[in-house]
Amino acid sequence: MNRPKRSPAPRRPATSRPSPALPAPEPEAAGTKSVFGNREQSWLAFNRRVLEQARSAGNPLLERVKFLAIVSSNLDEFFEIRVAGIMQQADSGSGGLSIDGLTPREQLRRIKREVNTLVADQYACWHRELVPLLAEQGIHFRTGAQLDDAEREWILHHFETQVMPVLTPLAVDQAHPFPQLANKTMNVLLSLDHPETPEEEKIMVILPVPRSLPRIVQIRPGDEGPMRLIFLSEVLKLCSDRLFPGYRVRQAHAFRVTRNSDLYIDEEESDNLLKKIEEELRNLRRGEAVRLEIEDGVDAGLLGDLCGHLGLAAEHVIRLPAPLNLLRLMSLYDLIDRPDLKFAPFVPAETSGLAQHRDIFELIRERDVLLHHPYESFNPVVAFVEQAARDADVLAIKQTLYRTSGDSPIVRALIAASMAGKQVTALVELMARFDEANNIKWARELEEAGVHVVYGLVGHKTHCKCCLVVRREGAVLRRYLHLGTGNYNPKTARLYTDLSLLTCREHLAAEVAQLFNTLTGLGRKPEFKHLLVAPFNLHSRVQELIAAETALAAAGRPGRIIAKMNKLVDPETIRNLYAASRAGVKIDLIVRATCCLVPGVPGQSENIRLRNIVGRYLEHARVFYFGNGGDPLVFAGSADWMPRNFFRRVEAVFPIEDPALRRRLCEELLPTELRDNEDARELQPDGTYAPPVRAPGESGFRAQRYFMAAATARAAEPGAVVVRDFPPDAAAD
Questions:
Q1: Separation CA 71–CA 216 (nearest Å)
Q2: Which residues are catalytic?
Q3: Within the chain, which residues score under 50 in pLDDT?
Q4: Mean per-residue pLDDT over the chain, rounded
Q5: Which of 249, 400, 441, 514 is deepest in the core (most CB within 10 A)?
Q6: What gap in Å lies between CA 260 and CA 311, rounded to an integer?
Q7: Integer CA distances (angstroms), 409 to 41, 72, 540, in order
Q8: For the whole model, what pTM was predicted?
């Protein structure tokens, strides 16, 4: 590899005030309430918001099924990462208290209680709401007990011809050790006996289900009439006796094991980071078990034997009604061609003016371009890199890659640019969680094409979204930038809400160039006056900006903060927001998921209103507004307000300097999201979410629906003013 190690970690930069590790909070006195919310409970409350979308009659039926599947996907990651970490703390006795003063075991007890309730509600939604509604639409899910003779005959034939040849049952006895079960794979637990000696001979068998087999089977697909479907696990339980001639199947229950999936890598001790991560990815298949999901009705003795083999205590077992793993319902969306049961298709609008400019660099020289994805197309971002790769006047391209698509046009363009003789540098983040293998693949292909591939700073994930293009224009070199809040991934750009800025402002370009030089070379004390960059000045500047609004309010002038992000966890930032609230600063927070701030508490946070929006698209943009005494400061970027983003990641938050673009964020984007009263929920002091209170006669309003209409209108008539009809309580008040 060109650069097998990351650059050395920076010392604490002079531009950032010291921020020592915070001690674990002291336990609160009896009868008092922590000033912080619990991180895990907050995340579970967010996932319940996703479940609300599955239960919402306002969403098309197959979209509701997708939301139900996402609940399961979210829970998988929660157990693989968050619960796994807390279990390790509890087992080792080394974990401190949570931000709200709970021990690891107290957290695990609360998580278990909330997860059990959430999963019970999820399955109630499936069985009592969605299955009957699907049946009304001619889509019938069958269980083994519901099959008629013709259906049963078809399934037996399907099993023998399409399923049984790829199955490998694994007996568990003295001659056959318990198999290594991969993370989140479907298995069937079988108990067999000999009909003549049932009490003397009982055998445990594990039937792993190959990932290659579709989890939902359509029964007699050529028949006219209603569509009949059955889960593969039902087929296996129904037909498993065909695998064991001479034996009787006493029990058959589907199960899956969730394992600790975090990577444990000491980068400073690893001579080759890429090879070390490849090794750890293989080890994930053997991570410690943290959860066992198994179908109801399993015999207690058989379950105890299974838990013993897995090394898992009974408290980490979740018994579920069939079918197991509702994430597999995601395939139903593509299996069923029913546009009437899905969201109406939306094509991202081309609003940047690129269609009128063959030369994207000419457009950027004329003005800054701000794109709001997925409402506005991601194509200009791809075109920016592709044109740079083709342009004979472009000398160099520098690019960060955190997550990208499997067939990435961005990566292809970087390879083409390098093959054309340009100086190309790619900062690939190998440890982007769950995308490590994909990024390793791209790193190797880029290097083979001559791209300089580097991995950033030791101990810091490179999470910033930056692309720098150096172009010769006459006697000068001009630098062009793309700065974003989301990944360079055209596929997720159609699903996530994000912002992209295209600009050639030299003072910003100079600081982005300095950031790249710090990441690819050496730089212990880089100075940034315009960008807010972690781990250097981001945390200190955020605290200074909050303090400035606090000082304005204390002096009797209006103080105003609006911050939109994914997560809010950093204790110092939360304390400073509380101080701003007490001083009279009006604060609106739009936090999609985890939040440890408690709003609306008298004497602490009564001036803070906090909401999240869960809708058709995943809210992902980070936008920060500070009133600044009537001359607003507006930023966007890659960072949430969490310790990891402030101190353990490389992040870039950039100012929106063009007055028209700044007005667009202040007068349209933020007020629109604060107006939403359909997909939005407001966080209550007790940690629950409630719908916003509507004024008498106030109609329903969805921010995401408005943005879709606004983007379409702009594309149809460039420069058109979109009618907003917003209340006066907007960002600039």
A1: 18
A2: 463
A3: 1-6, 10-32, 264-271, 273, 285, 432-434, 720-733
A4: 87
A5: 400
A6: 13
A7: 39, 31, 37
A8: 0.88
